[in-house]
Amino acid sequence: MQLPDLSLTELAAAIQARELSPVEVVDAVLERAERTEPQLNAYSAIDADGAREAAHAAERALAAGRDAGPLAGIPVGIKDLIDIEGRPTGAGSGVRDGHRAEKDSAVVSSLRDAGAIMLGKTHTHEFAYGLITPQTRNAVNGDRVAGGSSGGSAAAVAAGSATFALGTDTGGSIRVPAALNGVVGLKPTYDLVPRQGVTSLSWSLDHVGPITRTVADAALALSALTGRRAALHTDLRGIRVGVPRNYYFDRLDPQVERAVLAAVDKLAALGATLVDVDIPMTRYLVPAQSVIMLAEASAYHEHTLRAAADLYGEDVRGLLEAGGLLGAGEYLRGQRARTLVREAWSGLFTEVDVLAAPTVPVTAVPIGQESIVWPNGEVESVTDAYVRLCAPANLTGFPALSVPVGFDEDALPIGLQLIGAPFTEDVLLRVGLAHEEATG
């Protein structure tokens, strides 16, 4: 195994033990990026000089015996919605040409305090308004989509051109690309990770979180972002895992269903108790999330859209214009539905500790494919398919973790989504880690 393929926890431990130097790690990851980027295009910009300078500074601190932080010397990719002082935040859009951030976002500041090194900005679908990330290719199969909108972050982690990365998630934008690229994606509880200095898509649905290679890596990254340390272990006795009887297993690729149900059976074999559950208020989940997102995104972009509509991509401009046609009544009804959904889901989590479901209903589609035809003849857009199973955790604000649990016949990764009650990230990580360690 080459150095860029080691996990965050492995690299962090080796650096702290002085078995590896930050300079070695950063150089190796930069070399990997130089080799993979021509095909992958995960990054909008790489700050190689800045990363090497920071690595040398970390090396000097460690050599002097100073505490350089738990992530000292670890190179991280930052989604290009998140401000890094003095660097452009392009948000994947011509609207942001010439922009430079005046100060670090809260999450970048936290990562710097932990010793991490900002390697560069990863590609995003324009203003995070899409589930494809057209600039970037899938790290497992370059003919397939990377997923979005944090596609650059997920592809970079999967390819080893970032040890871990930050993404944002408004309707699945961390979990979808994590599942499609075979890595781990954590959307924390709403507002657990601060959003200051992060370009908004929909302020009441937006989340910031890590994309990593392993569940243990996600726990370490989350602790750096929040200061909360999870006591990780893999004993699942007493953990009630809810298996949905409705919604999550509707319109699903049979290979995805088999892999997810096999993962659920593995959790039972590890000591968890399986509980069949009915998902409440399913008819409101995607419509309420969509109305809120459309309205808030259009409000955020209102002035820029009037002044420079031609600088937006056609797909995003159309969505923003559509959102501008929504009235206050539709938005308020969406928020009322959200309140009722959240109350109903809170009741669900008195019966179970974790909900286990597919992350997405189908693996990474070929680049250019716009729709999926299900066996019953129903046609669904790729974007709608990818958002359908992830949107509920954004609408409720509940934490959700996507972990890889297998491959389809084309060797494309399949993701299991674990959803919990607010601020139960430690439970999700415990369940995910137990499966990860049991299956390798």
What does this molecule look like?
By secondary structure, the chain is α/β, with parallel strands linked by helices. It folds into two domains: 3-226, Amidase signature (AS) enzymes, CATH 3.90.1300.10; 240-283 and 330-439, Amidase signature (AS) enzymes, CATH 3.90.1300. It is 41% helix and 15% strand. The chain contains 15 helices and 13 strands. The protein has helices spanning 8-16, 22-40, 48-63, 106-113, 151-159, 175-181, 215-226, 254-269, 282-300, 302-308, 314-324, 328-348, 382-388, 391-396, 425-439; strands at residues 43-46, 75-79, 117-122, 164-169, 184-187, 207-212, 240-244, 273-277, 354-358, 371-373, 379-381, 400-407, 413-420. Strands 1-3-2-4-6-5-12-13-9-7-8 form an eleven-stranded mixed beta sheet, sandwiched between helices. It has a two-stranded antiparallel ribbon with strand order 10-11. Helix 9 (282-300) packs across helix 11 (314-324). The protein is globular, with a radius of gyration of 20 Å. Pfam families: Amidase.
